[in-house]
């Protein structure tokens, strides 16, 4: 095993956060996991009494974040790895989905993750060491109709992650954006926020997409335990990547996107270049 570390993972009640916590604990690391309820807290701490430490935190409680991180640094120890995992998917046609739903999506998936980074970075900088994993999504590279707010939030987190990675690399800190494909978590089940349908013009396009996602929930290709082991491998690496895709669906779809983007850029190159001078 690599040297024991302290991981701070947001959202350990289910899915990737829970799986990563379990694999990290099994590998001998200590895990501080954030939860939003007493039952989740008790269940998490029971995984490995003493080594699984829960902290109550909603990542949109921005004023609380610095205090929670300071308390962890003081009472548990130095955070070696922050995993910004807490997040959820909003599903809905853009025109049908209230702006408030978009704000909430960005508050959790983007602003929450940024606030967490801002809280741990002073400590990591002081030690000239640390690793931040931001769980984005293949939806941070590719898009499909009906999840514009979600893709927007994950594209934002990909961009922020890559940028901050360049800012902190000279200070000994790594940042990796981890973009999973479809995995068997609660993402498309209890956690998903679905805006109601209201505009029949979108029925033909969107109804089959919504239905297919509901059907597939729980039967996705990806195994969260395997994703967790892959993340541990990246955490142990001397020079971790800025971006890591997880799952064969993710790599196939992102490759297709990159090649069609390259084709489109080529096709419009003359017009693109015509604006210089
Ligand atoms: P999940 O099983 O629904 O887990 C989501 C976790 O995030 C839960 O622990 C949840 O806590 C927590 N959470 C949600 N909102 C929060 C908030 N405001 N403050 C604190 N914690 C919050 O789904 P998951 O798939 O593991 O999701 C983890 C991450 O992976 C998300 O960022 C998601 O977008 C991303 N992702 C998932 C997939 C996939 O196919 N599953 C693919 C790509 C990316 P509660 O129990 O309190 O709700």
TrEMBL record:
<keyword id="KW-0560">Oxidoreductase</keyword>
<dbReference type="GO" id="GO:0016491">
    <property type="term" value="F:oxidoreductase activity"/>
</dbReference>
<comment type="similarity">
    <text>Belongs to the short-chain dehydrogenases/reductases (SDR) family.</text>
</comment>
<dbReference type="InterPro" id="IPR020904">
    <property type="entry name" value="Sc_DH/Rdtase_CS"/>
</dbReference>
<dbReference type="Pfam" id="PF00106">
    <property type="entry name" value="adh_short"/>
</dbReference>
<protein>
    <submittedName>
        <fullName>Short-chain dehydrogenase</fullName>
    </submittedName>
</protein>
<dbReference type="InterPro" id="IPR036291">
    <property type="entry name" value="NAD(P)-bd_dom_sf"/>
</dbReference>
<dbReference type="InterPro" id="IPR051911">
    <property type="entry name" value="SDR_oxidoreductase"/>
</dbReference>
<dbReference type="InterPro" id="IPR002347">
    <property type="entry name" value="SDR_fam"/>
</dbReference>
């Amino acid at each position: 095993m690599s040297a024991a570390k302290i991981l701070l993972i947001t959202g350990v009640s289910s899915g990737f956060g829970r799986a990563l916590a379990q694999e990290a604990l099994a590998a001998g690391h200590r895990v501080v996991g954030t939860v939003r309820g007493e039952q989740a807290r008790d269940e998490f701490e029971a995984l490995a009494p003493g080594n699984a430490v829960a902290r109550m935190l909603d990542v949109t409680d921005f004023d609380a974040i610095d205090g929670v991180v300071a308390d962890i640094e003081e009472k548990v120890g130095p955070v070696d790895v922050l995993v910004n995992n807490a997040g959820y998917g909003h599903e809905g046609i853009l025109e049908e989905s209230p702006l408030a739903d978009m704000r909430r999506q960005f508050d959790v998936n983007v602003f929450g993750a940024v606030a967490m980074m801002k809280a741990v970075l002073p400590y990591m900088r002081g030690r000239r060491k640390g690793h931040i994993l931001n769980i984005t999504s293949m939806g941070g590279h590719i898009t499909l109709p009906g999840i514009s707010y979600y893709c927007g939030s994950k594209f934002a987190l990909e961009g922020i992650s890559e940028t901050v990675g360049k800012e902190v690399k000279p200070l000994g800190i790594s940042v990796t954006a981890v973009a999973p494909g479809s995995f068997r978590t609660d993402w498309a089940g209890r956690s998903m926020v679905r805006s109601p349908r209201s505009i029949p013009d979108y029925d033909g396009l969107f109804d089959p997409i919504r239905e297919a996602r509901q059907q597939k929930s729980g039967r996705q290709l990806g195994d969260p335990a395997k994703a967790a082991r892959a993340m541990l491998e990246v955490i142990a690496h001397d020079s971790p990547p800025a971006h890591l895709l997880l799952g064969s669906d993710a790599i196939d779809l992102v490759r297709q996107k990159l090649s069609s983007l390259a084709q489109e850029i080529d096709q419009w190159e003359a017009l693109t270049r015509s604006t210089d001078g």
